[in-house]
Amino acid sequence: MQYGWAGFLLLSIAATGQQYRYQNPALKPNERAADLIPRLTLEEKAILMMDESDAIPRLGIKRFSWWSEALHGLANNDSVTVFPEPIGMAASFDDSLVYQIFDAASDETRAKYHHALRNGKTSKRFLGLSVWTPNINIFRDPRWGRGQETYGEDPYLTSRMGVAVVKGLQGPADAKYRKLLACAKHFAVHSGPEWSRHELNLNNVSPRDLWDTYLPAFKSLVQEAEVRQVMCAYQRLDDEPCCGNSRLLQTILREQWKFPYLVVSDCGAITDFYSSHKVSSNAVQAASKGVLAGTDVECVWEGYAFANIPDAVARGLITVAEVDKHLMRILAARFELGDMDDDALVPWAAIPISVVNNEAHRQLALQMAQKSMTLLQNKQEVLPLSKSASTIAVIGPNADNAPMLWGNYNGTPIRTITILQGIRSKMGAGKVIYDKACDLVENKVTQSYFSESVAAGKTGFKASYWNNRDFAGKPLITQQLSHSFKLTTAGQHEFASGVPLEAFSATYEAVYTALRTEDIVFKCGATGYFELFINDSSIAKYHNWRTLPSRIPYSVEKGKQYRIEIRYAQLNNWQANLEFDFGKEVDIDFSALINRLKGVKTVVFAGGLSTLLEGEEMPVSYPGFKGGDRTDIELPEVQRNCLRALKAAGKTVIFVNCSGSAIALGPETESCDAILQAWYGGESGGQAVADVLFGDYNPSGKLPITFYRSLSQLPDFEDYSMKGRTYRFMSDALFPFGFGMSYTHFSIGEARVGSWASNNHRSLALTIPVVNKGKRSGSELIQVYIRKESDTSGLLKTLRGFKKVTLGAGASMEANIQLPREAFAFYDTALREVAVIPGTYELWYGNSSAEKDLRMIKVMVTDTAIIGSTAGR
Questions:
Q1: Known catalytic residues?
Q2: Does the pLDDT value for residue 3 go beyond 50?
Q3: Which domains, from first to last, does the chain contain?
Q4: pTM of the entire predicted model
C-alpha cells in the first residue's frame, strides 16, 4: 500500500533550517552519508556499527535499532496480525499472495513504529525499521528446528518466495524512501544443528552443492530483489567464520554479485570468533577480522566487540578509511528509510495505526492459512466431513492450543481461532466433544500438588513483586496464588495489578509437606531470568528469551517440609512469561478417553509438534529433541499410542498434523483415515483447518519439503552434502516434495513445446493441458523440473517452474509456463562456475516430484536456442 504519495513535496533547506548537506533530503543517500561521516568521531562511528546504536544528539542522529523481526508478521509485538509460519506459506506456492502479506506486515511495522515515537518512545529492539527477514536457508534436513522459518528444501521455490518477501517489505523500487530494510539470512550454508552452530566447521561442501543448492536464493535476493541487508551466519565455512569469511563477504557477495548494501552479523557471531571458534584471541582481534571481512553491523546479546574499533585503529589493525567504508553503507541505509528526515517528508510515516490487524490483514492471514493446508491422505474419501453429523470428537494436544498456531519469531494477535473453535463454528459447540487426551511428548500426566502447599498460613504460594529487576527494596505488591499459574505480559497484561510490564522482578514462595516418599516433578517455563530453589538450594536456573517448559524431577520424603522459592526477573527487550506447577506423574491410560467417546464415530485428533519442541537453540530438551532440533523424526510416542487406541476402538480418525517440519508418518498412515498437514497456521489457522475438513475450502497445498519414511534414510545431521537428501537427490519418500491431494481430480495432458523472445532472450514455453475431472472446483499446481541428461552428480531433477491453475468441475485450460535460458543453468565442474552448457535436457512436468506423477520430454539447448523435442515419456 502507498500513503500520501500524491501530496509528497520536498521542503527546502531554508524552510527547515538545515545547516549541513547531510540534512538535505533532496540529496542522494550516499551524498548525505559522505557529508556526515567526516563530522563523526571514531568512537561515534563505532557506536553506529552496533545493532543498538545510541543517539548522537550533537548531529541530530537518533537512536536506531537494527534488530526487528517480521518472519510472518511483526514479531515480539502485541496486537499484530500473525500470518502462517513461512514453511506453511511455502506450501501455498503462491508468491503473489506472499508479496501481499509482507506488504501488509510492513504497513503494520511502520504504523507501530511511528505510533510509538509519537507517544514519546524511542526506537528499541524489535520495534524498528530494519527487519531481519526472510530466512532463505535451505531446509535440507527435517531435524533442524528452525526449518519452519524457511520456504522449504528447494532453491527455486525459496528464491521465488524470498524475492516476494523482500519486495513486500521494502516497498516499490522507485519510491524515494524504503518502507523497511529487509535482510537475507543466514549467509551461507546454514541449517543446523542448533546445538553446534557456534563451533561447527563445514569443510566438505562441494562447489556443486554450494552453487546449485545453498547460494541461489541469496543471489536472487541480492540481484533481483535488491535486498538491503545480508546476515552472515554463525558457523565456519572452510575454517573461516561466516561473519569473517572474505570469500563469502568479499569475493562472492561484493565482487561477483556486486552487492552494495549492508552485511549484518547474527547475534553474537563476532564474539564467537574468540569465545567459540577460537580463530581470534580477543575482542579487538575479532572486531578487526569482522570489519576487514566485510561485516558492517554487529549484533550481540551483551558486550560489543565493535566497541573496540577505536583500539583496533590505534593498533594499526584496521584503518579509519576502512571504517568509513562501513559507515557509508550504514548511513546511506538510514537515509534511505527517511530516518533522519521529518516525518512529513516520508509517506510511510503517515500509515495509520488503524491498519494494524485490520479486516483486510485478517483476511490475508486466513487466505494464506487456507492455501497452506496440505492433504496427505484421504482413505475412502472420509473428508470432507458432514456438518449434519450428530456428534464429533476433537481431541489432542494441539486442538485448543493458540500459541502453537503462532509458530516462532511471532507477534501476539488480538484473537486466535484454534482448531477446536474452528470446528465448533461449523457444527455448534453442543455437537463437539473436546478432550486434550495427551500432551505433545510426555507419556505421563501430572497430578498437581500446588494446592497442598502453604504460605503465611494460606493455601498456595505467596507472590511478591518489585518495580525493578533486582528484588531491591520493599515489594511493590504481594498476593496469594492458590492455583498453578501461567503469567504473561503479552497483550499488555500485568502479572498482577499495578506491576509494570517491564523492568520488574518477583518471587513466589511456599512450603510443601510431603504426604509420602516419592518422586515428584516441577513443571516450569519462563521468558526472562528464572531460578528455582528448594530449601535454599538452587536446583534450576536459566536466562531465556522464549518460554521453554522444563521438567525438573525431585525426590521427597514423607513428612519432610520443602521450602519452594521461585525468583523471576523480566529481561530487557523481551515480554515476560512465567508458568509453574508441581506434583506427581502418573501413566496415561486411554481407556477413560475411549469410554468417553462411546457412540462417537468420527474423531479429529490435532497433534504433531509445536515451537515448545522445535525452534532456535533451545536450552530445554525432551526425548527425541535436543536444543531445538530433533534426534528422531517420528511423531512422539504418546501421540502414536493415542492414535492406535482410537483406531482399535473402531473410530474414523482424522489426523491434523501441526508441525514446522516433516514427520515420518508411516504408522499414522495405517492408524488414520485421513491426514491433513496444517503447519503452524497463524491467527486464523484453526478456521482454515475447519474450512478444509468440512469442505468449505478445497485443499490445494503442496509439500515444500520431503516427508521421509524414517530417520534411516538420512545422512548424519552435520553432513552438509546434498547426497541422499531432499527430492533432488532421493526418490523413496513417504510423501514427496510437491505432493498434496484435493477433493477433486485433475488430469494433466501432453505438453507442447514452443519458444518465445523477451528482450532478445530466447526462452522455452511449455503449454500443458489441464482438466478438472471431478465434481468440485479446485486448484492444481503444475510443476516443471529439469535435469541435464548427461549429469552424473546424482541430481534426479530440480524445480525450475510452477503455475497454479483453478478450474471448475469439468473445466479445462492450458497452463503456460515459460522457462528462460537461465533455468537450464547448473554448476559446471570444468568451468568452475554456474553456466548453461549446450546439450540435451530432460523436462519433467506434473503435479508432484514423484516420477509416477510426472511426464517427461527432452529439449536441446544450444549456444543460441532451446529446441523442443517429442522424445520422452
A1: 266, 614
A2: no
A3: 27-61+178-337 (3.20.20.300), 370-442+591-729 (3.40.50.1700), 444-587 (2.60.120.260), 746-872 (2.60.40.10)
A4: 0.91
